[in-house]
């Protein structure tokens, strides 16, 4: 296993047993010797993929490694990788574009003690540039920013940056041009803004749903020239809808969806909707939202075909409302599937949604409640540290096949948390050069 700056290259060793190799520094620098079978890396206490001669490796070309054993071994390598990152010696520098805004603040709060990433640079508008973060920000998060972050001097777009990865929570009026500029200059731009989401060769990804779409990065000219690229995560309402519908589409094929959203005030940034307009009220329109909700899910649930995505062929009709909830978007939808399914089959499909085991992955990606009174913003906003989407109340619909409720945290799973998860995957998959 060779380590350099931010990658681990795992090499399968051949030759005659026993073979010695060193465990990593932080594990005590032990020498572990291997016999012919079931090797154990002492300090990790777990079996490793190894061979030849090991039960975890094919002895001859005709033998096969069992898939579960292969996954188990890969997970051990992943855990070593994260241990190195979390040892604090090798954190990767990241920058936050739009650091003063609602999404920017959520990035700073989620990255405060992140095992892999270290906040290194902050960027906002010319009004903020040149000021220390602590002197400029109107902090709204419950978790305070660290002293180190507070002392960072904010830069403006175009100033030189050292960070490899840039998380973008820029206002959409500037995000398009700024993100392109950074990608062309060699940065990995992981964006929340709408500007590039529907561009053909820009991945729009929820890693548990469509991580293979990241392959589109290879067709971005900037990637081949400078290693820079742009990836996006979905609109904060779409992420909830796409995650709730993904297992159903995978197993039965969607044909129609009708959705009514009830979206939190924090989705409009700060100061957002005036309090006198929203307290005790519901506003039946959110500018530009319905178009996004009616189109983005088909890209996410589409299939990669060369340098583009063949969109999923179901229709969505959306009605979007702003409601007096602080955090978390709720929605009710009815849907029709191409292959008919029983209620139990749909619920078991929803419950069969596997996570990825990345640093920001929740224990459960999707939770289905049997109680018809869930999900609720007050009870479920922090489920899985804000990364779990909750669904419930599946019942028959008199117009389409079924209807149900879904809920997710808009600034975590719907924005900063989603982008951080994307970056964790991109790093692990070797996209970040
Ligand atoms: P916000 O609170 O209004 O913050 C906007 C940020 O952009 C601020 O840091 C602002 O910096 C910066 N900015 C504005 N003009 C700029 C310029 N000319 N140059 C550089 N920086 C500039 O907005 P937000 O709610 O965080 O949303 C940010 C983005 O994420 C938007 O594109 C939004 O659509 C998207 N998004 C939001 C949510 C959500 O739930 N809030 C969810 C998903 C996606 P200054 O303070 O210096 O002006």
Sum up the structure in keywords.
433 residues; alpha/beta; Dihydrodipicolinate Reductase, domain 2; 3 domains; six-stranded parallel β-sheet; 20 strands; disordered N terminus; binds NADP nicotinamide-adenine-dinucleotide phosphate
Q: What can you see in these coordinates?
A:
The protein is α/β, with parallel strands linked by helices and 433 residues long. It has three domains: 2-86, no CATH class; 92-234 and 417-428, NAD(P)-binding Rossmann-like Domain (Rossmann fold), CATH 3.40.50.720; 236-408, Dihydrodipicolinate Reductase, domain 2, CATH 3.30.360.10. Helices cover 29% and strands 22% of the residues. The chain is built from 13 helices and 20 strands. It has helices at residues 67-86, 102-111, 133-136, 147-150, 172-184, 207-210, 221-226, 236-252, 275-278, 289-300, 343-351, 377-380, 412-428; strands at residues 2-3, 8-9, 20-22, 31-33, 40-41, 46-47, 92-97, 117-124, 155-156, 165-168, 188-191, 229-232, 254-263, 303-305, 308-310, 315-322, 329-337, 366-369, 389-396, 402-408. The chain has a six-stranded parallel sheet with strand order 9-8-7-10-11-12, sandwiched between helices. Strands 16-13-17-20-19-18 form a six-stranded mixed sheet. Strands 1-2 form a two-stranded antiparallel sheet. Strand 14 and strand 15 form a beta hairpin. The model is unreliable at 1-64 (pLDDT under 50). The chain binds NADP nicotinamide-adenine-dinucleotide phosphate. NADP nicotinamide-adenine-dinucleotide phosphate (NAP) binds next to helix 2, helix 5 and helix 13.
